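3.2 Worked example (two chains)
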Amino acid sequence: MPRARMKAVLAGLMAAGSLAAAALVPGTASAATPTPADECAVAPGWSKGANYQAHDIVRYTDGRIYVAQRDNPGYDPTVSTYYWSPYTCGTGGNPYPNSFVVSEAQFDQMFPNRNPAYTYQGLVDAMKAFPAFAHTGDSTMRKQEAAAFLANISHETAGLYYIKEVNEANYPHYCDTGQPYGCPAGQSAYYGRGPIQLSWNYNYKRVGDFLGIDLLNDPWLVENDPAVAMMTALWYWNTQNGPGPITGHDAMISGAGFGQSIRSINGALECDGKNPRQVESRVNRYKAFTQILGAPTGSGVPC
């Protein structure tokens, strides 16, 4: 990610949420056995009028858990027993907890040349830390948000091919020794990694604190653990607006459109007529991914 972008994001986040540097390099991930999260612990609250898909799990207003037996437009689980059933956590009765609108086959179609370090299961596991992602609104909105997120990280990594920054000469630059916790993993340990190329010791600490993972002492998790890699990208998408007025997540659920998600990631360098080829790359990927998912692109596509 260009340094100009990094500076713009640092300014917007008070030097706490930059994405990262320019060149990328392929990497490998260590084999990891996914540990499924408790689907009840991350179950979103039921919302009247919100479209649900079969197998979605929700927490009702009284705290009880229900699983959707059929797609429905937000029917009350305590009334519409045809569409909902009570669900007991830990029974294994729901094989598709809060199912993702992108299937593994569609993910493979979107990223035919991706690095093996980026896995579908890693993305699905990462989503458990951000239950609102691609689970807000109706089916169309969910698909549009998934397509928007995946299109942006596809652009950032050349189709999920690159894992880390290419230019190793930059690696020592990402240690801010002015931070009270320093750089315990080493001065050259905080280079850009993952789908958003997370960099700098203070960003590894900030994301790690948010996720409850010690990334300050073990930044290599971002390149070695598929779920952690995706969680860093979802952290930015769901919680940071960067140079834009809103987060990528909010851009897609508010109707602002895909263009505003570009603005939140690299608006200072790409929007308002700047770097049209970069914007075109993002837009073309978004259009291709929404087509794969069978969803319209919606309005506000360019920025």
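3.2.1 Second chain
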Amino acid sequence: MFVTIPQDPKPCIDLHCHSTASDGALAPAELVARAVEKGVSHLALTDHDTIAGLPEAKEAAIAGGLTMINGVELSCVWRTYTIHVVGLDFDETSPAFLKALSIQNENRWQRARIIADKLSRLKVDSLLEKATELAGGDVPGRPHFAQALVDAEVVPKVAHAFKRHLGAGKPGDVKACWPELGEVVQWIRDAGGIAVLAHPRKYKLSATRLRELVSDFGKAGGRAIEVSISGQSSGDLGFVAELTRREGLLASQGSDFHFPGAAWCELGRITKMPEGLEPVWHHFREPVRG
């Protein structure tokens, strides 16, 4: 059962969502407008490996009376697994951090080019260009390639594109050359931000392996875990909460919103955080209380 974060007198805080700057369906300004509509008071736009949407989102937030927190979701590697780390409350003008994002951007373009090459057997003219257009001119991800295949009538639906061509083990399932976990965490720390382990149960790790990941994350300088996220079972919530307590880490939360119409990942609609955890937003440069 989902529980909306109490909004009065407590703030409604959503620290994980996506716009068209990465793989979301709404432009940054549209995303902020929807967040305001849903009662969100504090929002972090955490697009994949880019902060390109932040200026537009911040401008819209001022108009809507919503507080924006600097955010990004960075891809990295831990052992053989692709892991996502959310960076929060960092200095978006940091030259070193901007250089790191540029590296991530090139990694994504390299991956997109390989995906297009792998799918060339489908004989879709200008597939990379079409996927890029669907991504608003930014780096296309697998969802954009999937939609391009639908538009070209190669498959009837996006789900079919993933099942036949882009899902796990299929030709279009291309792994990018991401940096190591510790390096990404250090990028965030050097920019004055807080590194958060994103949606820990989505990696399909065993309990033992997840404990090892969290331990390594903390040793690398990671400070928080996403405890309360949309679509999470009560069992997973309890396990992650206990892991957070045991490792002495801060707790974060977010909807991981990508598109309208999915009740399980709507902005501001987040499982209530368990008692006894220290919220990450208490440690922002301008702490959020409540």
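3.3 Remarks
Residues 1-9 have pLDDT under 50 and may be disordered.
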